Amino acid sequence: MLAPQSDDEIRPIVDELRLLDARLDVRWNPTKIVTQPGRYTELGKLIPPKYDGRWEVILYDSPDRGHAGFHPERGYTVLGTITEYDRQGGVLCWVSGGAYAPIDARLLEVMRSADAQNVEQYRKVRERLWAAHDQTDVDADKLDEGMAREGLDRNHFAANYAGGVGNWQGHGADFAAMEAKSTKAAVGRIIPARR
Fold first, then answer.
1. pLDDT at residue 164 greater than cutoff 60
2. Separation of alpha carbons 170 and 130, rounded Å
3. Single pTM value for the model
4. Which partner for 45 in 26, 41, 119, 168 could form a disulfide, CB atoms 3.0-4.6 Å apart?
């Protein structure tokens, strides 16, 4: 199936498209949609499938950016299939699985709005990432402060109540003596002493 539009018809649109990115182009894919699957007859003869072609917007690979798709051997990535247009929320877009649409000025509008949407999405993602980064800094500061306090609390406990690791306040307790004293007092209250 030959492309329904000549190169002379689409070239001005493609030239405008390349102002967005020099690697953009369009290509005709004659086998994009299978309208009737292939099959075999009762006698084993193959009846080939029937196709409906569509224009595709492609992005060529570049040596400095590498390949952006799933088939690096092709040398390009398919960004979208040009189908009938629909306006959703004020943005012109292609209908998924829609009917054939020619290459015209609407293609430029779709690509420009997609470019603007990408810029906006990039800005939003960037803001979210920086907010998460800033929150991480705040959390790290709180964690550092909490760990410092916990360390001081452990040193204080160790020095004052657990036998004087460091004994930095000068009055560490003798744990064994404290335990013996408290056991004697507890036993004396529970079981009266014999006389």
1. no
2. 49
3. 0.55
4. 41
